[in-house]
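QA checklist item 7 of 12: single-chain prediction sanity check.
[x] sequence parsed
[x] length recorded as 510
[x] structure emitted
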Amino acid sequence: MAKVTRREAALLLGALTVAGRAGAAGPMPGGAVTVATAGEPPTLDPMESPADVVGIISQHIFETLYTWGDGWRIVPLLAATLPDISADGRTYTIPLRAGVKFHDGSIMTSADVLASLQRWMSIAQRGQQTAENVEAVSAPDERSIRIALKRPFAPLMSLLSLQTSAAIIIPRGNQKQPMTEFIGTGPYRFVARMPDRYVQLRRFEGYVGREDAPTGYGGRRTPLIEEIRFVPVPNAATRVEGTLAGQFDYADALPVESLARLKTGPVEPIIFPAFGWPLFFVNHRQGPLTNPALRRAAFAAMSFEDMLAAAFGPGFYAVDGAYYPAGFALNSDAGAEAYKQAGDAARAKRMAAEAGYHGEKIRIMVSQQYDFHYKLAVVAANGMKEAGLNTELVVVDWATLLTQRNDAAVWDMFVTHGPILPEPTLYSFMSPTVPGWWASPARETAVAAFNAEPDPAKRAALWGGVQRLIYEEVPIIRIGNFNALGVRSRRLSGLTPAIWPFFWNAWVAA
């Protein structure tokens, strides 16, 4: 069984080589793989959506200026090198690689990059977040881009590297919104999409990749596999059974109780310790939870130990009030006393009464496509009901949740999850414009100070203040840390386990 080491768990990337690779004859081009995803992507345009399923698929088609190397180190991808940054931290000059081909055969220039970054800042959640700090973006010449900031903005490089709500580079003549042609520079090109059946990609024979050694998502990307099909399989048990039966070559977001079965047969389970956070987003725009005192009461009603135990089982979770686990530079206990005190129904009931609660319905929107989301929601709802809160589960499919979370009128909380990322500003709840709509003078002050500070040690201290404010204003409810479970067929060789799985540099064994 493949297992990411504890060091790699903290970083959530590494060069783990799956079992069986050592005995393989070596990389073999050709063949096809089928990947079971947790649901149907709402779009294939990663600017348009922060959903993981979109990023997983689209990272094979499109590329960004920068990406993540081992240890969450930022490395160049379409950029030639790391940027030249002015002494005041406000001007980034980015050199571009020469000779990079788009899938339509055209060559990438700074005009394409400029148009793409402008589109990103206009339509993408994280692009809009970045645009608030940008004075201007320009192309001084055909081989460079310049980003002038209004003020120092430490998360810029991380935002340019992320796979979701991504700053992908596309041809300047293909900037339509919504996107109608899926033309990127990636190792795979788009072939077809049959909604609710599959997304089909094929190796891009003209791919111009980097020549440096593979590192995380960066470095050399070799498209050995001829064809990749991403198949939406909303039922987690079906993903398990389909992989065991040889129908799928890779599947993730699997229920932990399936681990024993996955240890046998023609598959290998992959465990990601300390993979991420399960989260409840809280509606600050409309409904009863616009009352901050009631938000704190709902938080106090939840037993995080019970929720995690029901969702993940022994050995697959950690009850921890720190947003970043021990070992991370941003680890802090600020505000975590509220986390430790939660799960007391009588106390939560008193808090709700003091908040002026009169039985208004609190709707938790959740999908069963992620099995653990639903289990968390059931236990949370029961705890809230014990505290006298009128709680209702609204069960929808994942694609519907991704759409309906934009409508403040139809939910009060929704359930999701995210990996532990090195830069907090990458989390959508840090922006006031995303579903949840956390906006307050205190948030603006705390987040602005954190984002403007380039010194890592000072940023760590400032993050403690942001974390304390999260516990006070409750934009989200973070349940704890969890381990993730995936599985791959033994015919799929050379795979590097990653939180957003990728299939370049992998091959189908003979």
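[x] summary fact logged: The CA atoms of residues 53 and 294 lie 33 Å apart.
[ ] second reviewer sign-off
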